[in-house]
Amino acid sequence: MTKERNQALEIIVAEFHKKIKEAFEVFDHESNNTVDVREIGTIIRSLGCCPTEGELHDLIAEVEEEEPTGYIRFEKFLPVMTEILLERRYRPIPEDVLLRAFEVLDSAKRGFLTKDELIKYMTEEGEPFSQEEMEEMLSAAIDPESNSIHYKDYITMMVIDEN
Amino acid sequence: MGSGTSTRHHSAFQNAERTFKAAALIQRWYRRYVARLEMRRRCTWSIFQSIEYAGQQDQVKLHDFFSYLMDHFIPSSHNQREFLTHMFTEDRFAQDSEMEKCSDYESIEVPDSYTGPRLSFPLLPDHATALIEAFRLKQQLHARYVLNLLYETKKHLVQLPNINRVSTCYSEEITVCGKSRSEVAFPIFIYILNGLPSPERSYVFNGDFVDRGKDSVEILMILFAFMLVYPKEFHLNRGNHEDHMVNLRYGFTKEVMNKYKIHGKEILRTLQDVFCWLPLATLIDEKVLILHGGVSDITDLELLDKIERNKIVSTMRCKTRRKKEKQMEEKGKANRKSSAQEPIPWFLPQSRSLPSSPLRLSSYKAHKTNRSSSIPCGGCLDGRELSRQVRSSVELELERCRQQAGLLVTGQKEEASRSASEADSEAGELQKPTQEEWRQVVDILWSDPMAQEGCKANTIRGGGCYFGPDVTQQLLQKYNLRFLIRSHECKPEGYEFCHNRKVLTIFSASNYYEVGSNRGAYVKLGPALTPHIVQYQANKVTNTLTMRQRISRVEESALRALREKLFAHSSDLLSEFKKHDADKVGLITLSDWAAAVESALHLGLPWRMLRSQLVNSSADNMLEYKSWLKNLAKEQLSHENIQSSLLETLYRNRSNLETIFRIIDSDHSGFISLDEFRQTWKLLSSHMNIDITDDCICDLARSIDFNKDGHIDINEFLEAFRLVEKSCLEGDTSECPQATNAKDSGCNSPGAC
Known about the structure:
GO molecular function (chain A): calcium ion binding
Protein name (chain A): EF-hand calcium binding domain 2
Number of domains of chain A: 2
Strand order of the largest sheet of chain B: 2-6-7-12-14-13
Strand content of chain B: 5-15%
Strand content of chain A: 5-15%
Structural class of chain A: mainly alpha
Oligomer: heterodimer
Distance between the termini of chain A: 37 Å
CATH topology of the largest domain in chain A: Recoverin, domain 1
Number of helices of chain A: 8
Keywords (chain A): Repeat
Number of helices of chain B: 27
Domain EF-hand (chain A): 15-50, 93-128
Radius of gyration of chain A: 19 Å
Number of strands of chain B: 20
């Protein structure tokens, strides 16, 4: 029984390794098994995880060299990332939870947030957006006629787009 | 619980906390979304690049095959010989008659109804701007003026050195543009952004003016016109697309033939000349070297300065030029018609000289008398004996033809009697590049920089090399240069520095793969030679799309291209899938799918990342691969699935190509099996010392076998040459071509090999 379980585990781990390697290689521009540390977040997130900025920060500290070089090596990244996938850490956020989050911000329960409100929340609360991130979100989220984001529709649109 | 105040504080605190958490959640979710978009963008980019480069390789391979076929097949009859010479001859003429031909543009009448620009030479700035205006209004320049302009352009180019030297003393500012976009809006756009060329504002256009667009002709006209108006301030470097072989594949040839139905061929011929006279590089203040591709560890600027650059007609093939030339020369001579015109194969430099030795033949031809139109496959023959036999029989044929033609070719008799050992000596009069010269030019036009040190062959493109920072450093030091500017590669931002900022890639065609795929850039240099980059994205639409929409559009395009490629490898994929399905259940895991696809396609793409876009998610992670392949096919067969064509100018010679098909179709079945194809190829290669692996042969065969049934029928064969017009596809294509006289003489029974 244990032997079968181990075998199954091996297969899963092997598959994870391939996935991680693929994602890593997309950003390994010099083909020398390193990526720029600034791309680690993208890699981790594209592998299905959804960490906060703080969690990401801690992760980077784990995979960095003792003397940070600005690059992360694959050999260090692989075991850490495999573990994350095995433990199913940083699970993505389900649609309904996301909706509730918007509803919390929309205290008056209008079904939308004004542009200014969105900006205020996203740049002053939580783990604030940079200006670039804010602009990008606004370009897709804000309905120019009403100058507001109808979050239910927005979520639906984004989710479809993901698939 | 406590006093009202503390409850209020408590709930206020709870509220704040909830708000904080809600915001954090949304941000966390959004950041993941953006990351996934970014990953998709990168994958899309990889798809385009890998397909583009794989396409370049395919072209080289297919061209190689037909070149070898030409080299080593000896026709057994006059008809066949005629066919062969016609097939690979574009009625090119020797130097003198070429020039005469060009000035024949004067005989071309321009109707009064023509409302386009009328050029007169020498060109004035007004003419050049009038051209721009005319093209903006979608007018087409009349063939007469096109040819006139090309003729004048060539006259100008011939005076230029291989490496053009430019100084910032004369013009304060030099603008370098990389690969252009073949839409007429492009140069207009640049001139609007940056200003028209003038004595104070020099321009260098760094190659690749044509292909992949619909206005290549107009672009060339504009660039050449400005070069003639401002000869000291306007400079052009040759790129790898200034090459008629490359043009056949990437659309320029087709564009010319479509726009100029009567004089297209002549225009193309003249352009071939013009292209090979384009300078190879530009040097600014002896400090900044501008060339199209890159350099290699053997790049020798002194040698490059000295070679006769017009000898390098095409960078696509050179290896067997010698043999081919001699053979074709012989054939050409033998076929001389009563008119003064003498066809010389397109791949020969303009020359009337005879080769110094008889044809270089291989053993298999000895059997040709027994098997009229087919190449025997197999048999261990004594090379030398057969060579001798074959040589003599060919000489007989030639003699016969000469007599038929009723002409005496001086010197040919002597040539024919020389021994084979002189086969390799180079004819003095024949202008051929040496292997080294050819290599130097290919390196300049095709190489790409890499991050690692060293210099290795550029297998992805099929030509040139990958050069490392040490190679760059070595070159810069050797010639006391400051940095290199090159183009050749598309960059998302339009430019990229590498090798410690010693190499600048500048790519001026924005939206190269698809609207929104990348930005364009050009670089300006002042007297201090500090590069100043200007970026842009020339499309109104992209500016209004969100990042998400932009990426989706480009991605869709990339995935479509990828699915086409997958379809083209259906039989490979099937066999790879079967390897993972030992129990023949018809199912494989998604993980195995990824491994199989990579084994079959060799594109180096992140298949696991792309999987969700290519495979419908199935329950329990298993895939029914047969139905997946079927769906791919259904999608492809609904629209034109032939992307690019080879040897497009042969479209007029359908019947001739049928002949060559039947040459290979040794058992006269109307089909060439992949096996026959492979065998034939193997035989050729074993005798020719061709260095191509079995895999390559198989790839080649498969790339022609479009309906993937293991056989190449005549339609597939012809389709490989884009000969079958779309309308014909619904017509009589399934008919087996009629036998020609040549074929019927002494046919062996099928399968006699």
